[in-house]
């Protein structure tokens, strides 16, 4: 807080008052004449209390903002830019794709279930071991997982990133967000026939990777 020195023109006495004093109650301490509060020494604002370098930097920033005015972007607009929903298709196209997808699911799913669980593989392709058939089915699921991730990336980058990083999110996207009924039918048929086999293979690969990392850490980060 700074003090202000007021000069009395009548008796020549200097009176020191606070800068926050009431201008209406100022008077000379000697003769009692009312003193005028100088306009140049008015109360300072919060801007005046800032250091000179900060005040200058703030003034320069305000000048740049005045030269290049920009409209603030709302959170709703940000979400609209990130997520771009697909255009709705007609009811006829949706009905047609639903019928085609259902037929593909029934035919492909029935064939794979027959080959996998009811001896169809041993009857029609006895030279192919069942374990090899399971690995082929698991590989097909992995391939279509990549297809789903690519489809999600082309629709919305953030959703595609979730499909790639979060286990199971690709299936959520496929059956709730994607418009590819044919892809749903194929993946659904593969899940019925090889879903459990794929889960076991993924679990085994995860266990092997976990043990390999633990052994590597136990050796102090040295590879054999």
Question: Into how many domains do the coordinates divide?
Answer: 2
Number of strands: 2
Q: Give the N-terminus to C-terminus distance in angstroms.
A: 73 Å
- Secondary structure class reads mainly alpha
- Placed side by side, the strands forming the largest sheet appear as 1-2
Number of helices: 8
Instruction: Indicate the proportion of strand residues.
Output: under 5%
Write down the overall mean pLDDT. Answer: 79
CA-atom Rg in angstroms: 39 Å
Largest sheet geometry: 2 strands, antiparallel
Shape: elongated
Q: SSE string, helix = H, strand = E?
A: EEHHHHHHHH
Low-confidence stretches: none
Portion of residues within helices: 55-70%
How is this fold's topology laid out?
Blueprint: E1 3-7, E2 14-18, H1 52-67, H2 75-82, H3 91-117, H4 120-124, H5 130-155, H6 157-165, H7 169-176, H8 181-218
Antiparallel strand pairs: 1-2
Helix pairs in contact: 3-8, 5-6, 5-7, 5-8, 6-7
């Amino acid at each position: 807080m700074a003090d202000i020195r007021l000069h009395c023109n009548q008796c020549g006495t200097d009176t020191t008052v606070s800068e926050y004093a009431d201008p209406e109650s100022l008077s000379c301490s000697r003769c009692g004449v009312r003193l005028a509060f100088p306009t140049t020494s008015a109360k300072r604002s919060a801007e005046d209390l800032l250091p000179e370098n900060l005040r200058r930097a703030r003034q320069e920033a305000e000048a740049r903002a005045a030269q290049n005015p920009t409209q603030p972007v709302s959170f709703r607009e940000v979400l609209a830019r990130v997520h771009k929903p697909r255009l709705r298709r007609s009811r006829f196209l949706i009905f047609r794709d639903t019928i085609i997808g259902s037929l593909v699911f029934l035919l492909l799913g029935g064939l794979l279930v027959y080959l996998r669980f009811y001896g169809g593989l041993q009857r029609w392709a006895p030279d192919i071991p069942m374990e090899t058939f399971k690995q082929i089915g698991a590989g097909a699921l992995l391939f279509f997982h990549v297809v789903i991730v690519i489809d999600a990336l082309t629709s919305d980058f953030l959703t595609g990133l979730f499909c790639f990083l979060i286990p199971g999110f690709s299936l959520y996207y496929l059956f709730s967000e994607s418009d590819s009924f044919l892809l749903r039918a194929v993946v659904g048929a593969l899940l019925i026939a090889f879903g459990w086999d794929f889960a076991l293979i993924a679990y085994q690969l995860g266990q092997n990777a976990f043990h390999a990392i633990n052994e590597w850490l136990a050796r102090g980060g040295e590879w054999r």
